[in-house]
Write a structure and sequence with these properties.
The chain has about 230 residues and is α+β, with helices and mostly antiparallel strands. It has helices at about 10-15, 25-35, 90-95, 125, 130-155, 160-175, 190-195, 200-210, and strands at about 35-40, 45-50, 55-60, 65-70, 75-80, 85-90, 105, 110-115, 180-185, 215-220, 220-225. A four-stranded antiparallel β-sheet has the order 1-8-3-6. A hairpin with a 2-residue loop joins strand 10 (about 215-220) and strand 11 (about 220-225). The longest helix has 28 residues, at about 130-155.
Length: about 230
């Protein structure tokens, strides 16, 4: 694959938070200056290995990647899922002496653009207009990543399975609820169980109970709260 397919994926790059307020021509020139390159990763391919030291971060141009943490007992927890235009690995790249705590795995054939963190600090990049915008955006991305991790820790601190599910669903609803209060979650049942660090069977049973009790309704990854109990939350 070409190392400079930026024009082909300019829509995805324009929608990437890293390039907010950067026009298409500047995105093209900026990625050329910093030597950004792309890679096609096959379904199931490990893009970043747990314990790997990183000096670069990635942008998903197509497909989906998942960050998974494995423990010593063989269990796993989904930390995050990234789709087209998403940035991943930026926190690890800025602290390259710290090994990755997760595997990042392609869930389908996926195209990734990799950016070397050290390249961003070259004088011709730092002094450029798009370079200034990218650094501001990168700082915002790192801040957002902190709050995402804080949110996940909040879920983990909730002992009740039902309360943990409700807290997660309220957060999803506050982000993408439609006018009829339906909203989607970014995981299938296995992914949702791993993300919430719960047993999949227990999760499915609790969701079924909540549906029978008319607390929620759902079909696959589409959900809706029933009644007025939670509508004020989003």
């Amino acid at each position: 694959m070409s190392n400079n397919p930026v024009k082909k994926y300019i829509k995805e790059l324009s929608e990437c938070a890293l390039f907010a307020n950067v026009n298409e021509n500047d995105i093209i020139s900026f990625t050329e200056i910093i030597g950004a390159h792309t890679k096609l990763c096959g379904n199931g391919e490990i893009i970043i290995h747990q314990d790997e030291l990183l000096d670069k971060f990635g942008i998903v141009l197509s497909g989906t990647v998942t960050a998974v943490r494995y423990n010593t007992s063989g269990g796993s927890t989904v930390i995050a899922k990234h789709t087209a235009s998403s940035v991943f690995g930026e926190l690890l790249a800025c602290h390259s002496a710290q090994p990755s705590p997760v595997n990042v795995v392609a869930e389908s054939d996926t195209v990734i653009m990799f950016i070397s963190y050290s390249e961003l600090f070259k004088d011709n990049v730092l002094c450029s207009k798009p370079g200034v915008a990218v650094f501001k955006n990168l700082a915002s991305l790192m801040s957002a990543q902190y709050f995402r991790l804080e949110k996940k820790l909040r879920y983990m601190s909730i002992p009740s399975l039902r309360d943990r599910i409700i807290e997660f669903l309220i957060d999803c609803a506050s982000t993408n609820a439609a006018s009829d209060y339906t909203f989607s979650v970014p995981f299938d049942r296995e992914g949702m169980a791993q993300y919430l660090n719960v047993n999949r069977s227990a999760l499915s049973r609790e969701l079924s109970k909540m549906k029978k009790e008319h607390i929620i309704d759902y079909n696959k990854n589409s959900f809706r709260f029933l009644g007025d109990s939670f509508l004020g939350d989003f």
